[in-house]
């Protein structure tokens, strides 16, 4: 949450009581929340899940979107 001023508390309020089975779904929903604001023209979200796999420190997913026209 670098530029968009979307607070972690806003994300927690919206998602902490939901059950997400896929990291992709959670990341996509957070990106949709950030991109929903009319003043956001580009957004990127990265979600990191520590100890998600047996022999790894963490698994993360990063996705972005742009509302600007692509020429």
Walkthrough of the structure:
- The protein has 71 residues and is of the alpha+beta class.
- It is built from two helices and two strands; from the N terminus they run ααββ.
- The chain has a two-stranded antiparallel ribbon with strand order 1-2.
Helical content band: 25-40%
Q: Please, how many helices?
A: 2
Radius of gyration based on Cα positions = 13 Å
Low-confidence sequence ranges: none
Overall pLDDT confidence: 81
Overall morphology: globular
* Number of strand elements: 2
Strand content is: 25-35%
Oligomer: single chain
**Strand order in the largest sheet:** 1-2
Structural class: alpha+beta
- The string of secondary-structure elements, in order, is HHEE
Distance between the termini: 28 Å
Biggest sheet, in brief?
2 strands, antiparallel
SSE layout:
Layout: H1 8-15, H2 23-35, E1 42-50, E2 58-66
Antiparallel strand pairs: 1-2
Short key terms for the protein model shown above:
two-stranded antiparallel ribbon, single chain, alpha+beta, 71 residues
Write a brief structural summary.
30% of the residues lie in helices and 25% in strands. The chain has helices at 8-15, 23-35; strands at 42-50, 58-66. The longest helix is centred in the middle third of the chain and has 13 residues, at 23-35.
